[in-house]
Amino acid sequence: MPVELTINNVSKTIDVEPDTPLLWVLRDTLNLHGTKYGCGMGLCGACTVIVAGQAIRSCLTQVSTVAGKPITTIEGLSSDGSHPVQVAWEKIDVPQCGYCQAGQIMSATALLSRTPHPTDADIDAAMSGNLCRCGTYPRIREAIHQAATLQKA
Amino acid sequence: MNLNRRSFLKVSALTTGALTLRLYIPQAQAQAHAKQNLKPTAFIKIAPDGTVTIKARGPEMGQGIKTELPMLIAEELDVDWKNVRVEQADLDEATYGSQSAGGSTSTPKSWDPLRRVGAAGRQMLVTAAAISWSVPASECTTDAGCVLHKSTGKKATYGELAAKAAALPCPVLDTVTLKDPKDYRIIGKSQTGVDTPHIVTGKPLFGIDVSLPGMLYAAIEKCPVFAGKVKTANLDQIKQMPGIRQVLVIDGTIKAAAYTAPEPGMEPGIAIVADTWWQAQKARKALKVEWDLGPAQTQSSDNFQKQAEALLAAPPVTTVRTYGDIDAVLKTSAKVVEATYTFPFLAHATLEPMNATAQWTNGKLEMWVPSQNPGSGSALVAKSLGISEKDITVHLTRVGGGFGRRLMNDYMVEAAWLAQRVQAPVKLLWSREDDTTHDAYRAGGFVGLKAGLDAQGKLVAWRHHMVTYGDGGKLSPGANIGSDEFPSGFASHYALYTSAIPLMLRTGYLRAPGDNAYAFVGQSFLDELAIAAGRDPLEFQLEILSNKMVPVPGEENTPKGPRDLNPERMKGVLQLVAEKSNWANRKREPGRGLGIAGYFCHLGYFAEVADVSVDKDNKVKVNHVWAAGDVGSEIINPRAAESMGFGGVIDGMGEMAQEITLADGKVQQTNFHQHPLMRMKQVPPIEVFWIKSNFAPTGLGEPTLPPILPAVGNAIYAATGKRVRTLPLQKSGFSWA
How far is B704 from chain A (nearest CA, A)? Predict the structure, then answer.
């Protein structure tokens, strides 16, 4: 069944079963591999993307429910790493294995867009849905504060 | 045979055979091995514009070696790090030396040979310049990618000299001159991970991201009981579902018997190959399989507990080490303390589930794998498929978490097996549920401890009986314990025994194998003893470390090496962490306490202090952690090293609330809601401090982790007077806030 999607400001019509999760459409149909599969149950946040300003778990989101809505993936922040959150992430050198980081970055981006100067408590609340097996949390916290400063500048 | 604690994985290799043989090679041997086998010139490519490309040989899984190992080469080559490009090498151990990553061995086995690779490159460039200028090479110097001859003012860039240098013979690595560490410009300075810019922009780096033209996707349904086989299934119906290309029954190679195998084997199951992975997964949900569950279906955690209790009450099966007169001294000690500690099976739970991509073309196999141990993987694939290793090409992808899981290459064999049958490139991906229920688990254990104190409150005797899993005297992979388990050698009378419960389940190596549990057991019990003696736990441990060591018979005159616990280094990190955490002046208040622990493993020394609050509902909040480490003379990439310190602490905390249990032979946990990882809001501020000691640098993947478990447990005791002897925390009445 054809579904029209607007991903990173580009509209595309794709033909998949309507109950296919957005995650697998991104990864296997559109070859956007930045968004990651971790649990398939909305427990780890590796698949986080932004739909109409909200951070959502693409592994639980049937593609038909986001038709026509603006979807932003990690690839859509900037391809050259110039988005303030990407700049901060690189400067702090947040990743260890790196697998969860796209999801972390998308959750952080959504947080910063509604709370430009988050407190540690804001960060705890917004980021506790994203698991990091390597334990980069202290670095993520540092990078979010840094990104808040960069956004302001 | 002396089962020395620090040669843990080597011991495993001896007892379990070939697979683990490549996992751990003693340092000196590793260096010799690497020197013999690597081709220095293959690591370095210099373009005419001066761009230097350095090959990263080992698998990058977050431990930072894709950046760190090329830093070693770049330092001695004497180039600007900003002009260096790093490329991941394909599997070719004849060219690059060892390409496995595990046991925190990458740094110790690379520190000497890879610096020499860089120095050899530098020497060739200097020689090339000296020949063209007709000056003695000894008068030439280098500086950031240039060769200089001061008295004539001549200068040439490496780019200009590269072609000429490449035609020269490569010097013997032993003969090259290395820099004085005070001249380092790259080592010891934080360098951003070479893949970080690609990670933050979502580039396809990981195994799961591999995409080939015409590629199909596979998922495998496996029996929930170990080694259970397919009896019947509605395969014809599945074949009719959308996108399904092929449905294959896998007979597998693993047997329903106690698992002490050196190789992971192939598990039986049903492979579904489809146009997309989601279609394969959907088809799985429609599968109706009748399994032959086999004998493993009777296994349960309750049963294991009962067997453990019986074994703990019986004479031990295997003596790992005894000296002195343990039983007599325990009878006459002024005070005797007894306790049983328990730790569960754990899953690895790498965030990137197991996967591999394979393409079979005209008898040749090409693979893209996130493996920690691709060399063993290639050998295993060759053996399993009956093909030659020469016909296998292995590309190393970035690894979305290793933690020891990817030392096993079962998923690699599965992908290769599928590619051979499907006649198209295949990407095999396990679901999270597959990953959690078909892991090679950290073995659980039940430890009976008994220790004697004299009238002055000094430790005199320590008896340690660990019941774990295996088959008679043969323990499951990762369940071994070394003869030098602390306080072996430091207590005047000592005994370490093991007994095994037969286990039909795959076990393996989890980050700081063994140590991640044994530190919890030993360092918690030591805290109990200090308190029983009315002593400060730090002072009590420092006193034990000051005892004259009881040598292993026959090794009285053998010089101590890096794998032997050096008590001065251990004392150093304990004292440093005590100072940083203000241990001596810690407040004693109800509901809040500090705990301290130290541990030596994988050539590294760490001590950690946890500040913990426990509320009236026994919810535990860690307020702060201080860690002190000694991993030798250089912290090669400081920011990444500090991150490894954070990671070890957080990972170890996570393990305190995890468990894998069995009922009716089935693993009961399937996903992160039942095998939780720490979350942002639960993670305290962590400070990491270093002692730079006069020893060759060693690895950080493992040694940062073990001390945090007993440090938190001891802090819970300080806060509540309740001792955590059973993990997970929930089984001791606590949970994370």
Answer: 12
A37-78 pLDDT tens trace: 999 999 999 999 999 999 999 999 999 999 999 999 999 999
Which two three-digit tokens encode residue B421? Answer: 């049958």
pLDDT tens digits for range B30-71? 444 444 478 999 999 999 999 999 999 999 999 999 999 999
B623 Cβ under 8 Å from any chain A Cβ = no
- The reply to whether residue B199 touches residue A93, judged by beta carbons under 8 angstroms, is no
Could you say which of B195, B202, B673 has the minimum Cβ distance to residue A43? B673
Six-digit token string for B164: 């000429």
Nearest CA in chain A to B641: A96
Does residue B18 carry a pLDDT above 80? Answer: no
Instruction: Fill in the DSSP letter of residue B726.
Output: B
Instruction: Pick the more confident residue, B3 or B710.
Output: B710
Query: Distance, in angstroms, between B2 CA and closest chain A CA?
Result: 34
Strand order in the sheet with B244-250: B244-250, B269-274, B216-222, B426-429, B355-361, B364-369, B392-396
Dump pLDDT digits (tens) for A55-65.
999 999 999 99
Q: What is the pLDDT of residue A152?
A: 75
Q: Which residue of A has its CA nearest to B61?
A: A97
Report cis status (omega within 30 of 0) of the bond before B477.
Answer: no
Among B367-381, B392-406, B546-560, B709-723, which stretch is predicted with the lowest mean pLDDT? B546-560
Q: Of all residues in chain B, what percent carry a pLDDT higher than 70? A: 95
Q: Which residues of A touch B353 (CB under 8 A)?
A: 37-38
The pLDDT value given to residue B261: 81
Say if the Cβ atoms of B62 and A46 lie within 8 Å.
Answer: no
Beta carbons of A28 and B278 less than 8 Å apart: yes
The Cα B618–Cα B590 span in angstroms is 12
Separation CA B269–CA B703 (nearest Å): 37
Tokens of B297: 């279906």
Helices (H) and strands (E) in chain B — how many of each?
19, 28
d(CA B387, CA B345) in angstroms, rounded, equals 35
The pLDDT value recorded for residue B260 is 87
Measured distance CA(B677)–CA(A45) in Å, rounded: 12
Cβ within 8 Å, pair B681-A98? no
Residue B341 DSSP SS3? strand
Three-state SS for B86?
strand
Query: Which positions in chain A touch B432 (Cβ < 8 Å)?
Result: 38-41
Interface test with A, best of B63, B65, B194, B199 (most A CBs within 10 A): B199
Contacts of B647 in chain A (CB under 8 A): 96, 134-136
pLDDT in tens, B337-388: 999 999 999 999 999 999 999 999 999 999 999 999 999 999 999 999 999 9
Give CA–CA dist B672/B678, Å, rounded: 10
pLDDT band at A153 (very low <50, low <70, confident <90, very high): low
Report yes or no: A18 and A62 within 8 Å, Cβ to Cβ: yes
Report H helices in chain A.
22-24, 74-77, 84-92, 101-114, 120-127, 137-152
Nearest to B127 by CA among B68, B168, B95: B168
Whether the CB-CB separation of A145 and A85 falls below 8 Å is answered with no
Closest Cβ opposite residue B193 in set A77, A95, A129: A95
User: Which chain B residues touch A44 with a CB distance below 8 Å?
Assistant: 351, 672
Torsion angle, CA of B7/B517/B400/A101, rounded to 10 degrees? -130
Q: Out of B400, B654, B680, whose CB is closest to A99?
A: B400
Average pLDDT, chain A: 97
Measured on CA atoms in the order B304, B310, B312, B314, is the torsion positive or negative? negative
